[in-house]
Amino acid sequence: MRTTLLFLIFISASFGAFAQSLKGKVTDEKNGSALPGVSILVQGTNTGTVTDPDGNFALSLADGNYNIVISFIGYTPQIIPATVSAGQAAPLNIALAESSEVLGEIVVTGSRSGGRSRIDSPVPVDIIPVSQITNSVGQVDINQILTYVAPSFQSSRQTISDGSDHIDPAQLRGLGPDQVLVLVNGKRRHQSSLVNVNGTVNRGTVGTDLNAIPATSVEKIEILRDGAAAQYGSDAIAGVINIILKSRTGLSGNVSYGQNVTSYDKNYIINNNKDASVNISDGGTTQIGLNYGLKIGQKGFVNITGEYVHRNATNRTGTYTGQIFPAVDGTVVDDDLLKQKNLTRNDFDMRIGNSEVKGGGIVINASIPLSEQMELYAFGQYNNKKGNAAGFYRYPNGVPAVVRPNVFAVYPNGFLPEINSDVTDISAAAGIRGKFGEWRYDLSNTFGKNDFDYFISNSVNYTQAISNANFQREFNAGGNAFLQNTINLDLGRKFEVLQGLNVALGAEQRTDKYTITAGEEASYKNYDIAAGVAAGAQVFSGFFPQNAGSHSRHGVAGYLDLEQDLTNAWVVSAALRFENYSDFGNTLNYKFSTRYKITDGIAVRTSASSGFRAPSMQQRYYARTNTLFVTQNGQQVAQESGTFTNDSKPAEILGIPKLKQETSQSYTIGTTIQISNAFELTVDAYQIYIHDRIVLTNNFNDGGNADLKAQLAAANATTANFFANAVDTRSRGIEGVLSYNTKFGKSQSLRAVLAGTFIQNRVKKGADGKPEIHASDILIQTKQVNSYFNREDLSRFEIASPRNKQSLTINYKAGKFGVMLRGVRFGEVTYWDPTIDPSKPDSWPVNTLTGNKETLDQTFGAKIVTDLALSYDLVKGVGVTIGSNNVLDVYQDKHTHSGNVSSGRFVYSRRVQQMGFNGRYLFARLSFTF
């Protein structure tokens, strides 16, 4: 420790002796006012600073010629040459012009050389200026903001899906949430501890909780749409999302409130779709965000953000048409009992919509200069949110007869069990970076942890209620935790080879730890095995003690990244990365990319890379029993399904191997076209092959195997499922962005952006047209391959997410008045029934809505969602916005099949979604910046 301290003092003193050789001031071109917080960067290096509150900056540079990159959100960036001679340079005073265009802004993701604009990048990078757009949109969390701004990004809130109701899974390019790497300020972000195990489109995956990062704390988000495992490591198959926190000084904030004001066809089954609509006002959402930045010295800062969000639940349930009460002597008595109890069928509504979530967080981002050539930086976040969601209604008719006397004494009309979540997310990163001689260095440690605890209310353990009239109604069901710690050392240097060679190399050590905490005894225990009823808390059985515990793994990596400017028009880059994991071994990956400028306004770019995704710790060790509602003979029935690890006895019995990494090959080709300063176009096509994709299998019964039957019984389960490397896939797509930006006179501006993505995801199939499934010999011999990977699983990969999405956004500004108009078209999605053989129509179930034999397959047509916002600047730095998301109150198509509707309850699909089903949302926001 003493040696390290002396070294830091020596370095600080040495660099601190240098004189300030390049000074200047940055102002607004229109009014001449000073611009604080402007980024000043020496191109091709990490040397840089930001302007102070008066717009001034100072840099210490050795004698030589430099290109100085000046960039600031909302202004057109500039690259200005500067010469330092005899330790001094002429003052560099710059006037920046306002611009809402971001294509020319400097990006840091996808290249380690620094100082490249998005349009000059050899790989496609989207820039989302979150700090600009949040004040003109109704969305309050990052997932929803990105869904409506970035066509390649998709996140839909889930419902009736256990923990997935509380953390929204997100996709890039239609791939899994765990196939995109998330960074914060360029450092790896930890994943959530939640595994999506219910019937959502991302079943079996583990994502990153982007909503744990307050939108108020974010300056911008860079989305690298290209494979980047050779640069950044595991998970970067679809691309990389880099969230860049605010570093500005001063005080800013916003207060907003909004709610859904809509109508939907709640009674379309009962009324045969006539006079079926009801008016709804729900989902009230309050957001309060505050950001304050304090300058430290000439170049340092401390920026602090606090945010609170309370989102009330929404409900788009249909009216239940099935049997409510037990029959009396074989006669259904629902109408008589409803009248006698002074109830209606509306009193038995489920809650199908957004869960309630309330909570908030604090984010700190800081940089403290130790000398002209060295800085200490740190950033971190604490977030806690509490959620409430409901499961399937337990109607009196569905309560097992053996427990009815005691259960009806407490719940005479059945009960709607609730899942209450307590999710805590923390992260902390610290490091030191600077320059030592000609080399740039960055040494850092990044820590992250996500805790997800489950508390069940308004429920019952049936086996406890058989002999206990005073049974327990609330349960601590245990939870999960995921911890990650990453140590990085990154080095870089610019060599004067041709037009410049950037060499970057580094090493990484990472530790992952996954923990399962057992629930209290009553949440999981079977108190009466002979009774033959489901054990554990209804809606979510607690984690078993035998599944509880912690599991760790370690990994080390090293990389080499080269980027060569052969000429001013041609750049090539190559990267190689080696990684070793303690649980599955080694992997070596490469990347090659190049960009060539045909003219000053036209360039072509291409890349090729290999990639991988290490199986998550959650997928390796998650184990519990949960209640699934599956479709059998056109009806939803409850099933106790146990999820077992790959090294368990049931996995051995069925011949299911241990997990290994997913591997990929990616190819991209594209062009960038800039016509004058008004029009810019980028178009990129890609193809990604992924081998050994991990899925959560469907449910296997014991098949008459006594050993397997005993294993299932010990877990209170009747079926078993596992994580497995099941299939290979191919993804193809085209992504494009066309922008137009112009000004009228002194106070008017117009910006229009048309963006779109077209996706084709396919599971590899054999000559017979059926998926090639990596099933064990035992499963093939016992004809259980369909339980390994079925039609619904196939549809989740290929057609259950929008296969295309387009958006047109128009921003008009006239003095103090502004208008934002946006239309987003979500492409069609399709559900495939896993229980039928499409080639045998005689075996199809009868659709009770039509009376015909039909599959439950359904395609839901494309929909356009229109957003409108009007803003006005009250005084300098204070503005107000009113508007509406989905102003035309558009819903996705309703179910047309009886099995999916489930006796009228599901008006809209919970299995496949485009933009959710909440309808029109009205909001108002007050924002300020001082």
Entry keywords:
930 residues; mainly beta; Maltoporin, Chain A; 22-stranded antiparallel β-barrel; Immunoglobulin-like
- What is the number of beta strands? 43
Give the CATH H-level superfamily of the largest domain: TonB-dependent receptor, beta-barrel domain
Query: What quaternary form is this?
Result: single chain
What count of domains describes the coordinates?
2
The dominant shape is: globular
Average pLDDT, rounded to a whole number, is 89
- Helix/strand structural class: mainly beta
From the alpha carbons, calculate the radius of gyration and give it in angstroms. 29 Å
Report the portion of residues in β strands. over 45%
Q: List low-pLDDT spans.
A: 1-19
Q: In the CATH scheme, what's the topology name of the largest domain?
A: Maltoporin, Chain A
Distance between the termini: 42 Å
**Share of residues in helices:** 10-25%
CATH class of the largest domain: Mainly Beta
Largest sheet: 22 strands, antiparallel, barrel
Number of helical stretches of at least 4 residues: 15
Q: Judging by the overall fold, what is the CATH architecture of the largest domain?
A: Beta Barrel
Organism: Dyadobacter endophyticus
Pfam family, one: TonB_dep_Rec_b-barrel
Subcellular location: Cell outer membrane
Membrane topology: Multi-pass membrane protein
What does this protein look like?
The chain has 930 residues and is mainly beta. The chain folds into 2 domains: 1-98, Immunoglobulin-like; 99-929, Maltoporin, Chain A (Beta Barrel), CATH 2.40.170.20. It is a multi-pass membrane protein. Its main location: membrane. Keywords: Cell outer membrane, Collagen, Membrane, Signal, TonB box, Transmembrane, Transmembrane beta strand, Transport. Belongs to the TonB-dependent receptor family.
